[in-house]
Amino acid sequence: MPNVLFLGKSDRRIEAWARAHARVVKGDNGHVIFLALYGENYTQDNFTFVNCCTLPQQHPLTELQELVPASINRAIACDRSLTDYTYSTSYGSYSNYRSEQIEQLVGVVGNALLHFMPQIDYCVDGLADNFVTPLAFQIAHRCKVKFYMVRLWHYWDQGFHLVDSPGYVSKVVDDYYRRYYPRLSQSVYPRVREDFERARFSIGAFQRENWQLRLQIVRDKFFSYERPSAWHFLQRRHKRLVGRFGVRGLRFVTPEQRPQQYIVFALHVMPEASILGTDPDIADQFSLIRRMSLNVPLGVKILCKAHPGERFGRDIDIEFLRRICSLHNVSLVHESERIDSFLNDSRCVAVATINGSVALEAVIKEKPCFLFGKGIFAIAECFLKPRDDEQFFEQVMQIVHGRYSIDKVALAAIILSLKRAAIPGSGSLKAPGSWLDFYSSLLPSIHRFHKRSPDGKAWS
């Protein structure tokens, strides 16, 4: 009789998603508990809705911190409603909370999690773009409760992965990789690469993602802890308006002007939930780019490329871009340039990213890739993962002088591991339907996965 925990934010679709899972586990006499920071408590059949604010506050913050293995500040950093660890501005947070209010909010949720976690078999969530998910993740691991977060890819349209370990890591992927890597030979690589490249597709748009849904989401925020601050919103809009004009004075490099040797740094979406959840200390990305600027060999330049769909000055803050361009060996490239133009350019000596999927695209194209963060494929030895500035310099020198080659056995091993660990779902990312329909289609597979692999080890 499994008890499953879902975590509510302001988006009411998550509550409907949890109710769908209650129907999935009903055949096993299971029960779904849904924790939220809005609404009134109720129970309907095998679904229980609990507003965390209605539970007793038995554990003070000091005790709560003692019970989790990492600083709770790392969980708070993930929530743009509370803080702005991306640009570190006073207006970057969506809401307007004082420090003591944030701590009070954490205490409310933390006490609710400690109240229910001992009776939970597993937790299900989507993305750590809030403080609730990473805090629950920490408490779940302390209580030895499985925690599954859904990870989608543009390589498996009917499959998905479950991230279940700190750092957006999948134990199943890691387990398969450790099995494959010592046993494979380089001769399997061409076939694995061909299959992988052929499998890539474009993810379809969710249906009914219209202005009415956006208006509903905004309305719901006003009745949750994510109440928007009008003043912060107006300041961000003003910055975006000014920023689109300000980028004209920045240093851009055209394809013809690219230097003879350069590293392309693939910027993440800002803010990026996966970075805030794994490596909040480099979520601003500038600190990392500055370290690269200091440590690349003289003559090697750094070109910064925006994430697809992002616009300099609009989505990426103008002050951040000005700081980047203040570095003598760092330039921007136009947003319209595709990553393929760099991967096919002999002047590009390497790609750098924190934990983006561009890392796999780069090594597939036999372009060395620096991976600075954690992630589902970060275990693989086909990426360069410098432990400090000195090793980064040495690795770039090896590339420049032709002394580095990508470990193709490791690349084949991680691709096969990702493919083997993909969990089949009944929906398709090519035509996903609505958000709720698609994510609900994953729930039976998640429940079967947990029943089949309760210890989190690889299964086939």
Apparent shape: globular
Largest sheet: 8 strands, mixed
- How large, in whole angstroms, is the Cα Rg? 23 Å
The poorly predicted ranges are: 456-460
Helix content: 25-40%
What string, H for helix and E for strand, traces the elements in order? EHEEEHHHEHEEHHHHEHHEHEHEHEHHEH
Oligomer: single chain
* Main structural class: alpha/beta
| Ends distance | 24 Å
Query: Count of helices?
Result: 17
* DSSP summary, beta strand count: 13
Keywords:
460 residues; disordered C terminus; eight-stranded mixed beta sheet; alpha/beta; 17 helices; five-stranded parallel beta sheet; single chain
Please outline the helices and strands:
Elements: E1 3-7, H1 13-25, E2 31-36, E3 42-44, E4 47-51, H2 61-67, H3 73-76, H4 99-116, E5 122-125, H5 132-142, E6 146-151, E7 159-163, H6 171-180, H7 189-199, H8 211-221, H9 230-246, E8 262-266, H10 273-278, H11 286-295, E9 301-305, H12 318-325, E10 330-332, H13 339-343, E11 348-353, H14 358-364, E12 369-371, H15 389-400, H16 408-421, E13 423-424, H17 435-452
Helix pairs in contact: 1-17, 4-5, 6-16, 7-16
Explain what you see.
This protein is an alpha/beta fold and 460 residues long. It has 17 helices and 13 strands. It has helices at 13-25, 61-67, 73-76, 99-116, 132-142, 171-180, 189-199, 211-221, 230-246, 273-278, 286-295, 318-325, 339-343, 358-364, 389-400, 408-421, 435-452, and strands at 3-7, 31-36, 42-44, 47-51, 122-125, 146-151, 159-163, 262-266, 301-305, 330-332, 348-353, 369-371, 423-424. It starts with a strand and ends in an 8-residue tail after the last helix.
